[in-house]
Amino acid sequence: MKLKGTMVMELTDVNTSEVETITEENMVTNAVNNILGLNPMGVFYAATGEYDDAVLWNGSLLPICPNMIGGILLFSNALAENADNIYAVSDNLPVAYASNNVSSTSNTARGSLNLTESKALDNGYKFVWEFTPSQGNGTIAAVALTSALGGQNGYGSLVGDASAFLLLKAADIGGMAKARQMVPFEAVEVDFENNLLYSITAADSSVTVRKIRIPIFTIGLNEKLDDSTYRVLEEHTVTTETFHFLGDYTSYGEFMDGKDGYWYGFSNEGNSSGSATMVWVKISKEDYSFTEGQWTLSNAKLMDVGNRDGNTTYPERVVKCCVRSGFLYVPAYNKQGIYKINLANFSDVTLISFGFTSKWKPLCESGSCEVYMTLIGDLIVAGDFQVTADDTVIHTQGSARLNDAATPLFQYKHFLLGWGGSYGNEYRNMYLLTPYLASVNNLSSAVVKTVDKTMKITYTLT
Known about the structure:
Blueprint: E1 5-13, E2 19-25, E3 27-28, H1 31-37, E4 53-54, H2 57-60, H3 64-68, E5 71-75, E6 96-98, E7 112-113, E8 119-121, E9 124-131, E10 138-146, H4 150-153, E11 165-172, H5 178-185, E12 187-191, E13 196-202, E14 206-213, E15 231-239, E16 251-252, E17 254-257, E18 262-267, E19 276-284, E20 290-297, E21 306-309, E22 316-319, E23 322-324, E24 327-331, E25 337-342, E26 349-353, E27 370-371, E28 373-376, E29 379-382, E30 385-387, E31 393-395, E32 410-412, E33 415-422, E34 425-433, E35 439-449, E36 453-461
Parallel strand pairs: 22-27
Antiparallel strand pairs: 1-2, 1-36, 3-35, 4-11, 5-6, 5-10, 7-9, 8-9, 9-36, 10-35, 11-34, 12-13, 13-14, 14-15, 16-21, 17-18, 18-19, 19-20, 21-22, 23-24, 24-25, 25-26, 28-29, 29-30, 30-31, 32-33, 33-34
């Protein structure tokens, strides 16, 4: 599908009635074509069960306008003009946005669609968005079309944050034996292009890494799309001396993908006073060699990194930490900040204050499996806060936005994949990350929207 877009931005001074007009043409990204042309793990097929929770295309994604393209994002910095640039990095999150309706919220970053002037054309669609003097203020250097859901709150605000995730399919895998369910529940990495999943588990003094074949973009003669036919291709067990999951009744620990050629394991018990003790292991993806050790983190008061249990009647995993760019992020015990720990130098520990007390809710509903933090692009997304790449904290509403979740979310373009369950209900879940860039429109020179101006954006897409 080939699209062409023209944008006219009008900034009107409410005191002088002077109008500043900016006209730009955009480039269209691969966002819409990716959604229409990709089908990872058969997410758009009714392949796993007739009662699986699945998205209804009509009304959610179709017609393309005003659904799959039905919102707008405004950025303070220019965007890379690349057809494969479908998401902004976290140091350039949208300063303003609007959806395909009139905003009835108190979110001052959000404008409204002019329902009278917006309309379908013979060969496309005309969108008209309006921002009052109090809405959408800030520097604007780039504009992008996005989905209707992506234009509601961007990646999240104090008004709402669930709209960033659209559940495409919750495939019921409850018919699998618990031991087989636990393998994807302990996933730490998914290699989408090569149809591989890596799962890591720990015993008393050993760590086992499993390399697993799952049908993502190719399917074998004997494979199905309900996870029942996944195959363990390789299994490597390393014997550790220092690293193990701490705890007596509860096994505290978590494994993370460092995205640097290594997997990392961590274990600690939360401490409300004194210094934190954490054991760790670093495993090479190339040859499964490893190093291990113990950290004493002076005056650090940490929550536990997570816990898991495969011995109950249903698999359990709780994720409370995140690894990004060589650092481990673990929330403070008092819920008022997050610790950033250098994986290469454990004496380099920084406490990043929230400026508020987190409600500390998981991204899913509370249950036997819970995910509290996950990495999306370079943005850490947690229950009611986000942490950008420069460690700026963004306070959000904290609504539940995931189905039962046990694993971090694994991203491929628009798609977010994860496994999870709660008290015997197990699923493989796939989401669409909705604040994507359907177009890129960099302004010739940035403009500043202030409380003295209204803004009207007319975007014609053909």
